[in-house]
Design brief:
This protein starts with a helix and ends with a helix. A hairpin with a 2-residue loop joins strand 4 and strand 5. The chain is 49% helix and 16% strand. The chain is an alpha+beta fold. The chain is globular.
């Protein structure tokens, strides 16, 4: 305690140095803790379930026929049919259970009010396999799934239960309407559990056997060729992942050969053989199932590395400050050593001061981390920020404590050892000119500042690469005009409305929207553009020969009238979809340039006939060709696209409306919910948004990486400039007598100024060269994240070098001016 009290008094004697050191450490630790929190929640933290290390995910790569519907839980290699799930469940011997799940969108009604949200279909084994217990009531079990379509029950998520029902116990046994189906609330999931899919926050859980009831248009429960559910299992004690995989595959191959192969129509012999040879693969499942880790691992790892570099620069800054402080305390250290104090005791005392600085910085770092997390959550893609916990959890506290101790030792060790070197005679001499070991300390400080310049150069190049990449993305030709265009979604089918009623609601919405002041165009699309969603199918095209292995896939969507003209697209030939293209009229389609090119239609596309899927009856006529427009992702190359009329398909029960206005987007966005309440107060309106905001959201991961890299590189550059300034200011102070002597011998102010700036230039050149070499390596690691550019872009490298040079010169100007103003007589009397 004595050392701590003494250290506190010592630090308070130099409040400016202490404050700057604490702020530097707080910024470095705060940035690292914030990024680690995101990194940990996204890539490291296991599911909050019993023994998550025994969970495994099931996947089966290889060809498959029929339909595949992939969601947030993973790729299409991980989806299975419901009958296959039951076959695997019956034939396995290595698991305590296999569970199935799939997310879905729903309209929810309770006590006269409605809203839209996500739900999750889960098997009766889902909660037992995870080993969860309810917050209240009970969870779903095998008995809720025994009868197909008979389990009219629902379990609420704990978060939804508290938000919507105020955590009331009496909601148990009450009725919740999900897509028009009355489901009895039987329980609430445990606190802290959201889903086994990272980034998904379902409001409730429904038995998976209810899929065809809750979504009557699907009809997939009995279909072996409909692949849509994700599977995971829990290993029995003592059974390894490899053993379980080996034990399950014979049964899987038996099901494939006996039940699946006979259903495969239109496969070539080679593809059918690959289908027969498919195997189950088991993957580690402690993190659940999600696309998020795979998509975010590289950018998050890169940004976490960047924050570590920022922390190193902070440590270098504080080490420079402590070295300067140690130089002023050299006489004190010499006196203490001369009267018998042990060197180990003094080093311990100085390290205690360093650790106190680091701990104070760590406490401040928690505040910085909280602010940084809030800012980061607003930039994360696809609402991922809403799934992040911003609270101070145990992991964050442990990381903060660890970083505080490590940084305290890192920036405090050399100054502590250096300031206690026992050259007592030199240190005790009055007016000795320089304290003992000053040259070694000066060299070390210059080395630290040069290292800061190198690290800053690498970060500036990285930020420049991401900024140019984002600039390239913003210049992508979308093929449509996003200004003054508003989009929103409605899904009458989720209210249980039949197709005829859904189409009548769509018609009324179109009419009412056109009556709004300033509205110049209204259309719709089943697929929300630039949202990441996509619908694809094989197509048979007149005049295009195709064998079973030929790629005939194209994207498609069902749209309303005036689709291209409302969105600002370009019609190259023929006509677009109109309101006359109804159910009783001949089926028509508009295709894009990419479709024409893929199927070799040339200039004769208009008038050709096509069919969705395989078959000889070509029942759709191409009536128009459009220029390519963005479909699901802004960065993707244009895909073949078929635009169909929703009025000619009775299955379309949900769509997204696009409204163009000459007035204010905000006024239009506020008018839409009011209009929808007048049309149908029970029909929720989903995601009313400006189309320009939708496009920005589509590239939000790029914006997040660019913004964070720019912020961290700016912070690093500022800290490096401060470090360089500190080194130069200290150097000028040390060389005061030298500068005075030079000026007494005839050197003018300009000569002295050039002398200081030459040192700046040398440090910048050395540090910049090292930094550029490091930037090349960093660029190679980040190249896959860049859009339409090289990681060795000369403009970016030159710009970063120029910017850092300017910053370094600015940091050196004040010390250079101070050196140039030295009075020779005063300098010669210095110390």
């Amino acid at each position: 305690m004595h050392e701590i009290r003494f250290a506190i008094r010592s630090l308070l004697k130099t409040p400016i140095v202490t404050t700057i050191a604490v702020l530097s450490v707080a910024l470095g630790i705060g940035a690292n803790v914030a990024m680690f929190s995101i990194f940990n929640q996204t890539l490291l933290r296991p599911l909050p379930v019993r023994e998550p290390d025994r969970l495994v995910n099931l996947v089966s790569p290889g060809p498959r026929n029929g339909s595949s519907s992939c969601g947030q839980s993973g790729s299409c290699d991980g989806v299975f049919s419901y009958p296959m799930f039951r076959d695997l469940e019956d034939g396995q011997t290595s698991f305590t259970g296999i569970a199935a799940h799939r997310d879905f969108g729903a309209n929810i009604a309770y006590a006269g009010s409605s809203e839209g949200g996500d739900g999750e279909f889960v098997s009766g084994s889902y909660f037992p396999v995870l080993g969860l217990t309810p917050e209240t009531g009970r969870l779903l079990g095998p008995s809720d799934e025994r009868e197909r379509g008979g389990g009219h029950v629902v379990v609420l998520s704990e978060e939804y239960w508290r938000r919507r029902f105020a955590g009331r116990e009496d909601v148990i046994n009450q009725v919740l309407l999900v897509n028009g189906q009355a489901l009895t609330i039987v329980g609430v999931a445990p606190r802290g559990f959201q889903s086994t899919t990272i980034g998904l926050r379902p409001l409730f859980f429904v038995p998976i056997s209810m899929r065809d009831v809750v979504e009557p248009q699907s009809k997939v429960i009995e279909d072996r060729r409909a692949h849509w559910i994700y599977l995971f299992a829990r290993l029995k004690p003592g059974v390894s992942l490899e053993q379980a995989q080996g034990a399950l595959n014979p049964h899987f191959r038996h099901v494939i050969a006996d039940l699946e192969v006979p259903l495969q129509k239109g496969m070539s012999a080679a593809t059918l053989e690959k289908f027969r040879a498919r195997e189950l693969q088991l993957e580690e499942g402690r993190r659940g199932q999600s696309r998020v880790p795979g998509e975010s691992r590289q950018p998050l790892t890169l940004l976490f590395s960047v924050t570590m570099i920022v922390l190193l620069i902070c440590c270098a800054n504080v080490a420079n400050l402590l070295l300067g402080r140690a130089a002023r305390r050299s006489t004190e250290m010499a006196v203490r050593l001369s009267i018998g104090a042990g060197r180990r005791h003094i080093v311990t005392q100085l390290l205690t001061e360093s650790l106190l600085l680091a701990i104070a910085g760590g406490v401040g770092g928690l505040l910085v981390a909280r602010w940084a997390l809030t800012a980061m959550s607003l930039l994360l893609p696809d609402g991922a920020g809403e799934t992040l916990s911003l609270a101070l959890d145990t992991d964050m506290l442990l990381v903060t404590a660890g970083l505080s101790v490590a940084t305290g030792l890192l920036f405090g060790l050399f100054p502590a050892i250096h300031s206690t070197r026992p050259n007592l005679v030199a240190a005790l001499k009055a007016n000795a000119g320089q304290p003992s070991g000053a040259k070694a300390a000066a060299r070390f400080r210059v080395t630290l500042a040069t290292a800061q310049i190198a690290l800053s150069m690498a970060l500036l190049v990285a930020a420049g690469l991401f900024a140019k990449s984002l600039s390239n993305i913003t210049r992508v030709d979308l093929g449509l005009k996003t200004e003054r265009l508003v989009v929103f979604g409605v899904a009458p089918m989720l209210n249980g409305y039949p197709p005829a009623r859904s189409h009548e609601i769509f018609r009324r919405i179109e009419e009412r929207l056109r009556q709004l002041p300033g509205v110049t165009g209204v259309t719709s699309s089943m697929v929300r553009l630039a949202s990441g969603d996509a619908w694809g199918s094989s197509f048979t095209v007149e005049g295009f020969p195709a064998d079973p292995d030929t790629d005939t896939q194209a994207m498609y969507t069902y749209v309303g009238s005036d689709y291209l003209s409302t969105l600002g697209g370009t019609l190259l030939s023929g006509r677009e979809i109109t309101s006359a293209d109804t159910l009783n009229a001949p089926k028509v389609a508009v295709v894009n340039e990419a479709f024409v090119k893929k199927f070799s239609l040339g200039r004769d596309a208009v008038g050709k006939r096509i069919r969705r899927g395989r078959g000889t009856e070509l029942d759709i006529e191409i009536v128009g060709v459009s220029a390519n427009t963005t479909y699901n992702n802004v960065k993707d190359a244009p895909e073949p696209l078929v635009v169909l009329s929703y009025r000619q398909d009775t299955s379309v029960g949900s769509t997204h409306f696009y409204v163009r206005t000459t007035g204010s987007d905000d006024d239009l966005m506020s008018a839409i919910p009011r209009l929808m309440r007048e049309i149908d107060p029970t029909l929720p309106v989903a995601d009313v948004q400006k189309m320009s905001a939708q496009v920005l959201e589509n590239v939000s991961l790029d914006r997040f990486v660019t913004t964070m890299a720019a912020a961290f590189s700016a912070l690093a550059t500022l800290l490096a400039a401060l470090g360089l300034y500190g080194v130069l200011a200290y150097t000028v102070m040390q060389r005061t007598r030298e500068f005075g002597l030079r000026m007494a011998l005839g050197a003018d102010a300009a000569n002295v100024r050039r002398l200081v700036l030459r040192q700046v230039g040398l440090m910048t050149a050395i540090g910049g060269a090292i930094g550029l070499a490091a930037a090349l390596a960093l660029g190679r690691a980040a190249e896959s994240l860049l859009f339409q550019m090289s990681a060795r872009d000369p403009v970016v490298f030159a710009g970063a070098a120029a910017l850092l040079t300017v910053v370094a010169l600015c940091a050196g100007v004040i010390p250079a001016q101070r050196a140039a103003r030295v009075d020779p007589m005063t300098a010669l009397r210095y110390e």
